[in-house]
Amino acid sequence: MTVEFLWGGRARPTRGPKPALTLEGIADAGIAVADAEGLAAVSMQRVAAELGYTKMSLYRYLPGKAELVAVMVERAIGEPPALAEPGWRPALEEWSRLLLGRYLAHPWTVEATVGRRPLGPYEMGWMECALDRIAELPLSGPERLDTIAVLAGHGRMLAQQAAAMLGEAEMSTAIAAVLREHGERFPQLTAALAGAADGGADQAFEYGLARILDGVEMLVRSRS
Amino acid sequence: MTVEFLWGGRARPTRGPKPALTLEGIADAGIAVADAEGLAAVSMQRVAAELGYTKMSLYRYLPGKAELVAVMVERAIGEPPALAEPGWRPALEEWSRLLLGRYLAHPWTVEATVGRRPLGPYEMGWMECALDRIAELPLSGPERLDTIAVLAGHGRMLAQQAAAMLGEAEMSTAIAAVLREHGERFPQLTAALAGAADGGADQAFEYGLARILDGVEMLVRSRS
DNA sequence: TTATTTCTGTGTACGGTAGATACAGTTCGC
DNA sequence: GCGAACTGTATCTACCGTACACAGAAATAA
């Protein structure tokens, strides 16, 4: 259902009144709501109201809410990039940072893409353009897939973490508040957090990215 | 709100009738529903019906649904393990595999733990016990935190991926079906998937785990 | 031109959700 | 025994997604 909607071309009928809305416009309205108030605030009613129409009119453009969210995700992630960096490692770094940027620009995309769901053309395009840059490495097909999956997962995790801190004061405030009271039960956690207050999320992303790519580079070197 | 509920002790009042339910029993009923039919099937009504009570009676034990899910997650993740393996790397491997096991046993926990939310005692205990095993490494506090965050994120990603394949035939069926039609647009993806059909998720998890820990080991060695 | 067909947006209705509130019954401390 | 405190229940509001019937608009066929 959703997969046909994402991949199938939608032919405009010739008869009848001109449609007042467009699929893209509806999705953009949904994205605006999600950006401002979170994915939970996105309802048919809300999106339709944002456009000045009734919720039922949206069903002329989409089969249901699942498809709305799917299209929103596709447009939020956007077209896959043209990677400028030469060499597989800088290219993967660039790819990872660009993907993180998309996630950070629309933090709700992480929430919207958990669980079983079909991928859209853009999302597949992102995978394709990363795989293209590591095609020549001495890695098997599954290994290449797993490599970019780990990188994408790392970006998702960090975007989620960054979004959690966004509305809050400093670091993951909930943790801090709890540690102030139960710190003695978690000495290592307390100690590790004491040395924080630096770059935060940016630092964390680059640290993980470097470790993952170091690991990939080790494997590649061992096979050359 | 949720954080006080997870961390604050609940004192039983002395007067009045005996409670017919327990918080643990309610959470377990919720877990049973989520295991069998997914997190979406968990509603106050459904959980109460499972116990033979009306939904409003649950509000005597929990402030709301958010707290129910939080308690469900805590019980599903369970007590942090006592890591048997000696040495930091085998210990982290054990920790990662155990965590993945918990996620796989209750796939909805991944879905239930996206976005900003307070951590419970068990979840913090998992972090603590991993941090304890890498406390002596030449890594800064944030680096130690980021290390286990990357590992946890990898486990989450894989559990999610495994859950997506669970109800389906072979590999991520949606991708396969799409590639059958639009394969020429994604040559690298097609090629990479052609060499699959092996261990699948298990293989993918071990691959990523090895790469990440290789990267950490490189960093540790470079500082010794 | 008129009639017909097809599509648009809307109004209504239904079953589901979370939760507030008011209430009747039970059980303890005094 | 009595009153206070607590239990579970019934009722109510406010949403949610969406199925369906319908009036009006636009393009085609007559």
Notes on the structure:
The structure is a homodimer of 224-residue chains. Chain A is mainly alpha-helical. The first copy, chain A, contains 12 helices and no strands. In chain A, helix 2 packs across helix 3 and helix 9 packs antiparallel against helix 12 (201-222). Chain A starts with a helix and ends with a helix. The mean pLDDT of chain A is 91.
Give unreliable regions of chain A as ranges.
none
Percent of residues in beta strands of chain A: under 5%
The computed structural class of chain A is: mainly alpha
> Largest sheet of chain A at a glance?
none
- The 3D shape of chain A can be described as flat
Describe the SSE topology.
The structure is a homodimer.
Chain A: H1 2-7, H2 23-37, H3 44-51, H4 55-58, H5 65-77, H6 88-105, H7 108-112, H8 121-133, H9 141-166, H10 173-182, H11 187-194, H12 201-222
Chain A binds a DNA duplex (30 and 30 nucleotides) through helix 4.
Keywords:
homodimer; 224 residues; mainly alpha; 12 helices; flat; DNA-binding
Task: Produce a short descriptive summary.
Chain A is an all-alpha fold. Chain A has helices at 2-7, 23-37, 44-51, 55-58, 65-77, 88-105, 108-112, 121-133, 141-166, 173-182, 187-194, 201-222.
